[in-house]
Amino acid sequence: MTSTAESLRTPASVHERIRHKIVRNEIPPGRRVNIDSLARELGVSQTPIREALQRLEGENLVIRERGRGYATTELLTEAQLQHMFEVRMLLEPWACRVVAVDRAGNPGPALLTLVDEFESEHADVCARIDLAAHDTEFHTLIHASTANEFLSRSLAGLHAQANLFRLYGHDIDSVSTLTEHRDVAQAIADCDGSAAEEAMRTHLLRSLDRYLPALRGEAPNDFVAPPPARIR
């Protein structure tokens, strides 16, 4: 039987743990990635660290510079963020339509449960870092439910980069995010493909509007843990 310590050292786990550190801003954007330090911290050799960084490069969370090793990617520019959302607008509304009409594998009830549980666990306040984790889980469930591996891989890095802005912006409204998630989940649960598609399109457009302030002089140069955001 594999021990807990051993399971944390598998290639997949090493990748997830480093990805987790980047998305949660423990390794901020534009910072050099110290392979030796990560190997010591995670209790593994450099080989799985390098393998994980190669995967993260494919997700656009790190970049490799010739002769200098890896660094986390910088936050996107406003134009890049808009272009990234254009790609998401092409793929995610379609994904919602696909899963909504699949009555056998419909993820709507599970998506509604995610929203209910998050609201229950954060009845008064919600740290933005927790909302980012919920957002990732919500969207990932939709992507996975399409059973389209190419779509899931394509969206994984895009979504992770988008959530970095949630940690930097001052005016990210968790009330709106959860309301929009509930609208998407309910439309999927109702097996209404058109409504699900439109709900996701609306959610993405409004999300972009909430992210843009982080690119317009309203975000700190260095990460400072933001105050909790009220969700009720």
UniProtKB/TrEMBL annotation:
SUPFAM superfamilies linked to this entry: GntR ligand-binding domain-like, Winged helix' DNA-binding domain
Organism ancestry: Bacteria, Bacillati, Actinomycetota, Actinomycetes, Micrococcales
Name of this protein: GntR family transcriptional regulator
SMART domains per UniProt: FCD (SM00895), HTH_GNTR (SM00345)
Protein source organism: Brevibacterium luteolum
Transcription regulation found in the keyword field: yes
UniProt-recorded Gene Ontology molecular function terms: DNA binding; DNA-binding transcription factor activity
Keyword match Transcription regulation: yes
Domain of life: Bacteria
Alphabetically ordered keywords of this record: DNA-binding, Transcription, Transcription regulation
InterPro entries: GntR_C, TF_FadR/GntR_C, Tscrpt_reg_HTH_GntR, WH-like_DNA-bd_sf, WH_DNA-bd_sf
Pfam families: FCD, GntR
Residue span, HTH gntR-type domain: 8-75
